[in-house]
Specification:
The chain folds into two domains: 3-35 and 301-420, Lyase, Ornithine Decarboxylase, Chain A, domain 1, CATH 2.40.37; 44-296, TIM Barrel. The longest helix has 19 residues, at 264-282. With 432 residues, it is of the alpha/beta class. The model is unreliable at 168-178 (pLDDT under 50). It has helices at 27-34, 43-60, 77-83, 95-103, 120-129, 139-152, 191-200, 222-237, 264-282, 295-298, 332-336; strands at residues 12-14, 20-22, 25-26, 38-42, 65-70, 89-92, 111-113, 133-136, 156-163, 185-186, 205-211, 244-248, 288-291, 302-313, 319-323, 343-344, 354-359, 368-375, 383-386, 407-412, 415-420. Strand 20 and strand 21 (415-420) form a beta hairpin. It contains eleven helices and 21 strands. Helix content is 28%, strand content 24%. Helix 2 packs parallel to helix 9 (264-282), helix 5 (120-129) packs across helix 6 and helix 8 packs parallel to helix 9 (264-282). Strands 4, 14, 15, 16, 17, 18, 19, 20 and 21 form a nine-stranded mixed beta sheet that branches. The protein has an eight-stranded parallel beta barrel with strand order 5-6-7-8-9-11-12-13, surrounded by six helices.
Length: 432
């Protein structure tokens, strides 16, 4: 197999024609039938990753635990119905995500609402639906929620999102726990301490836990350990015993050769050891441990398939291969300088001979899916697939240049099911 195929979903194989297939489906055939760009999700990979996360946390932590899927990684009504069949909670960040979860028959007691600037409508809906926890992001939000809850005569179960001032080695745009972060209640100047005391004095705010999220694409265990210790130091200083602790998600995922490797088992063991040590020191009962992986569960399950359009050589000899998607369905390379691998799904063993760039179809010089890759000579109409395409691509997609968004399929052995149909400009009236 070409080296990039090891990043494809776990059901990936070759058929008799030598084509790459996922869950027994020839990716060339799917592209011909459904058109491109096309996103496919492998059911086996999602189920396997979910069960791995659940089994790992239960094996290392002696207290209660929950794995909560971060919907912002990718969410749709079709996917919500699939995830609801698994033993997952849901981390939502908007009214839209809560509505999709509700339509997908999620139990509200399995849903948390996050977000740094929740609207009154979002807070009210969360209270009315009866979700498990609202994760408070500021002292101002505490006051707003208290007013809403009092008006409804319904106490709100909450976590406080704490910003512990922990730096991590990742892209600045996905660092979320440093002292200048827009997220969470800082520990500096006693703000987090005051938030706990505010909750203690309120009849409408039921503080059940503390939460932090240090960033995304994190491969280092130590920042998680330091953040947990700081949560316990805060709780001890405020004379507050949390029933639940959530160190968030952000587990790193490799996208291509040379990327760091992440072992969630080692990370969860370190989390468990830290929580047990702190509770032992303070003689507190173990809190419920809630972890929130999104990317780690779904990224590898997704594959983006594109058709080759025009090809040419630049003035400096670079082989420019234009695809029929790009930054509108995958803005990560433009936003975060993210790097991917790619395979010719019809000729996965073709010998690379040109220093190439994979560009998108959009009118931006920054619309490059892969700025440097070795490719064979390719022809118009051939299919190129990018693996590890399941997270933070479609969920961040747009209609830039008024280009419709792609179709999305759920692949089981012997069955391909539509998760989201391809957009049609004839059916979209937002610009009319």
């Amino acid at each position: 197999m070409q080296s990039c195929e090891r990043f494809f979903p776990i059901s990936t194989s070759r058929n008799q024609q030598g084509h790459t297939q996922v869950a027994g489906h020839d990716l060339c055939t799917l592209a011909e039938e459904w058109g491109t760009p096309l996103y496919v999700y492998d059911a086996l990979t999602i189920r396997t990753r979910t069960q791995q996360a659940i089994d790992l946390v239960q094996s290392v932590y002696p207290g209660q635990s929950t794995v909560s899927y971060a919907a912002k990684a990718y969410f749709s009504l079709g996917l919500a119905k699939k995830l609801n069949q698994l033993d997952l909670n849901l981390d939502a960040v908007s009214l839209g995500e809560m509505l999709i979860a509700q339509k997908g028959d999620f139990d509200p007691l399995n849903v948390h609402l996050h977000g740094n600037n929740k609207s009154e409508d979002e807070l009210s809906f969360a209270l009315l639906w009866g979700i498990e926890n609202i994760v408070i992001d500021s002292l101002d939000e505490l006051s707003l929620l208290e007013t809403i809850a009092a008006g409804m005569g319904k106490a709100a179960r909450i976590w406080l999102r704490i910003t512990p001032g922990v730096d991590v080695d990742t892209h600045p745009y996905v660092q979320t726990a440093h002292v200048a972060s827009k997220f969470g209640i800082p520990m500096e100047e006693g703000q987090a301490h005051r938030a706990i005391q505010y909750c203690k004095n309120s009849q409408w705010l039921d503080l059940v836990g503390l939460h932090t999220h240090i960033g995304s694409q994190v491969f280092d265990i130590d920042p998680y350990v330091r953040a947990i210790r700081m949560l316990f130091e805060l709780a001890e200083g405020a004379a507050y015993i949390p029933q639940e602790i959530s160190p968030g998600g952000g587990w790193g995922v490799p996208y291509r050769e040379g990327d760091d490797h992440f072992d969630p088992g080692q990370m969860l063991q370190a989390m468990s050891d830290t929580i047990q040590a702190q509770c032992g020191r303070l003689k507190w009962p173990l809190p419920k441990l809630v972890v929130e992986p999104g990317r780690w569960i779904i990224a590898r399950a997704g594959v983006a398939i594109y058709s080759v359009g025009s090809t040419k050589f630049s003035g400096n000899g670079l082989y420019i291969v234009a695809l029929d998607g790009g930054m509108a369905d995958n803005p990560r390379p433009a936003l975060y300088q993210s790097r991917y691998s790619a395979c010719l799904v019809g000729r996965p063993d073709a010998v690379p001979e040109h220093r190439a760039v994979l560009v998108g179809r959009f009118c931006e010089s920054g619309d490059q899916l892969i700025p440097e890759i070795m490719l064979p000579e390719v022809k118009r109409g051939e299919y190129i697939a990018l693996p590890v395409a399941g997270a933070y691509q479609l969920s961040m997609s747009s209609n830039y240049n008024l280009v419709p968004r792609p179709a999305v399929l759920w692949l089981e052995e012997g069955n391909a099911e539509i998760l989201q149909k391809r957009e049609s400009m004839a059916e979209i009236d937002w610009w009319n």
